[in-house]
């Protein structure tokens, strides 16, 4: 199993801090660095900065990756061109992860001016066309979300693997059928095993070797000697994903994902409290710590490595996704050191 580090915009890192953490990750033996993309600083440029800094420590530099780019913000050609550019710059040490963002939510579609399209056909179209563009093909394609006629990149990048962000069974099946890897998120070990089985079934139906589809996941880690501060920080991060917005379908997206892991009643109780006016602090205090430990780690450095190993069971790539209880930079260093060697 490879182990990487995940850093996101919530840490508030400067570019100098990004580069310093990349060098430290290389010194500690991590194999890759990952970030999500969205409306914050450009993730492709962050990956390039990481690679250049890590090259000062490790010959050739570390792999970098984006987990994930929400595709509604991009056209397939733009996405392939940006990914191919970082792939060429790094000599093939870049992985592109793509996902559907919040396209299942009416408010998300309205904000971005998107049509009402289901996540599965959207991701099939992007996965198939972006992979072909990165392979140097001239792409003719007519799908539910993407139409291209003879589109191709103006350069030939080295191979850039495309991983699919997936939670539910149909998206996991698509990853097995057509992706280079799958990017999980907020999973218990039993959910990882379930996901791997579905990916393997999809790969076999498509005539592929299931072992060719790598299984990766962000595992949230909040290291702080103040256990309560760490618990609150990790719970805050979970609630940002797990609670359904009022009026949305609880079967879809992350809400459905957490329900499949047995969190449904807990989340219904929290949603009812929220809708009655409970504050975020009250919701954090009401979240059961025993459920929190099924999907992440919070607490002192001494317990982080073993907990991370347990949560990483069944993965090909486990990513220490840093959650900050205090300063983002200090929290990143603490989590990286605590989980090094996992």
Plain-language structure description:
This protein is about 45% helix and about 20% strand. It is an alpha/beta fold and about 350 residues long. The chain has a single domain (about 1-230, about 295-340), classed as Luciferase-like domain (TIM Barrel, Alpha-Beta Barrel), CATH 3.20.20. The strands form two sheets. An eight-stranded parallel barrel has the order 1-2-3-4-7-8-9-11, surrounded by nine helices. Strands 5-6 form a two-stranded antiparallel ribbon. The radius of gyration is 19 Å and the shape is globular. The mean pLDDT is about 95.
Write the layout of secondary structure elements.
Blueprint: E1 2-6, H1 15-28, E2 32-35, H2 43-54, E3 63-70, H3 76-89, E4 94-99, H4 106-112, H5 119-134, E5 139-142, E6 147-151, E7 162-165, H6 169-178, E8 181-185, H7 189-205, E9 214-223, H8 227-242, H9 253-260, H10 264-275, H11 280-286, H12 289-292, E10 296-299, H13 304-311, E11 317-322, H14 328-339
Parallel strand pairs: 1-2, 1-11, 2-3, 3-4, 4-7, 7-8, 8-9, 9-10, 9-11
Antiparallel strand pairs: 5-6
């Amino acid at each position: 199993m490879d182990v990487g580090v995940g850093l996101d915009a919530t840490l508030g890192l400067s570019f100098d801090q990004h580069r310093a953490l990349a060098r430290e990750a290389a010194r500690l033996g991590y194999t890759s660095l990952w970030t999500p993309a969205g409306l914050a600083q450009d993730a492709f440029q962050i990956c390039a900065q990481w690679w250049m800094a890590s090259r000062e420590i490790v010959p050739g530099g570390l792999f970098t990756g984006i987990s994930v780019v929400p595709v509604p913000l991009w056209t397939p050609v733009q996405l392939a061109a940006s990914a191919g550019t970082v792939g060429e710059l790094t000599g093939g040490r870049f992985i592109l992860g793509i996902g559907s963002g919040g396209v299942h939510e009416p408010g998300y579609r309205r904000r971005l001016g998107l049509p009402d399209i289901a996540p599965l056909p959207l991701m099939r179209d992007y996965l198939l066309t972006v992979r072909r563009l990165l392979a140097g093909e001239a792409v003719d394609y007519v799908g539910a979300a993407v139409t291209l006629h003879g589109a191709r990149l103006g350069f030939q990048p080295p191979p850039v693997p495309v991983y699919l962000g997936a939670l539910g069974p149909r998206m996991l099946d698509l990853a097995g059928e057509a992706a280079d890897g799958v990017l999980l998120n907020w999973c218990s070990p039993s959910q990882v095993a379930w996901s791997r089985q579905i990916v393997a079934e999809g790969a076999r139906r498509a005539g592929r070797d299931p072992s060719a589809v790598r299984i990766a996941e962000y595992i949230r880690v909040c290291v702080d000697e103040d256990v309560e501060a760490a618990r609150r920080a990790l719970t805050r991060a979970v609630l940002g994903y797990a609670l359904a917005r009022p009026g949305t379908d609880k079967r879809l997206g992350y809400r459905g994902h957490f329900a499949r892991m047995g969190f449904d009643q807990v989340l219904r109780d929290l949603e009812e409290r929220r809708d009655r006016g409970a504050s975020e602090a009250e919701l954090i205090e009401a979240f059961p710590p025993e459920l929190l430990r099924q999907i992440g780690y919070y607490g002192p450095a001494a317990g982080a490595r073993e907990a991370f190993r347990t949560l990483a069971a069944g993965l090909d790539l486990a990513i220490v996704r840093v959650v900050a209880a205090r300063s983002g930079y200090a929290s990143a260093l603490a989590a990286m050191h605590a989980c090094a060697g996992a």
